Amino acid sequence: MSSLSAHRRELKYLLGLRAWPGLLARWQRHLVKAPFTNEHALSPVLSLYYDSPDLCFYREKLDGLPHRQKVRLRTYGHEFRAGQTTILEIKYRDHDLVRKRRHRIAGFNPAQRAPDQWRIDDVETRGAFEALRLRYRLRPTAQVYYQREAYEGIVEQDVRITLDTCLLGLHPGERPTGRLLLDRSRGLMPETVGILEIKATRGIPGWIHEGIVAAELEQRTIPKYVTAVESLGLPQTMEAGIYA
Fold this sequence. Notes:
There is one protein chain. By secondary structure, the protein is α+β, with helices and mostly antiparallel strands. It has one domain (2-239): VTC, catalytic tunnel domain (mRNA Triphosphatase Cet1, Chain A), CATH 3.20.100. It has 7 helices and 10 strands. The protein has an 8-stranded antiparallel barrel with strand order 2-7-6-5-4-8-9-10. Strand 6 and strand 7 (97-105) form a beta hairpin.
């Protein structure tokens, strides 16, 4: 199953976890827990990011290009297991506007983590992924694991609010074991903060703006893929000629 989403606006904030219960209580009556989450609206998320041998997508983010893209494979679990819900995505960004081309892989096989094993029936979607695969010589570069608390609007059904915590940088194929979760060099942010993301296709509702003002939030975030690449030392490895 393939799709191209509408453009939506994304606002991101670093949020102290002590402030989250009060902010969530303020918004709770407008929200329902999102799909793929448990009774507490929580889900593990594991994303495998792809990049060129010279880390083109990574460098575009560092350079602050307003128009950029990235490719990732995402699952809602601790590893990419056979048969598990797995989604292949291209994320296009234009300033604060984001659009995604998605392909849900039916009957996922871990071998499909390799770009040359992607099998997409939809012609347009296949062409989009194939063009990027060939142009950038895409290969698995880094994984990001985190716990996500996710909600959707009850009335404003285009609204999505998520809080990501316990972010961890992993090499392709690694699993988030207890040892790695305790490895401070792999953590992508302090344990006392999370990344709050607010997404909407038809404008940000007033009740969200009121909460942002009340919590005195300022737009700021930690780019997950960029931070993972740096925590794994990939730029230094590439410069040393090892990442070939």
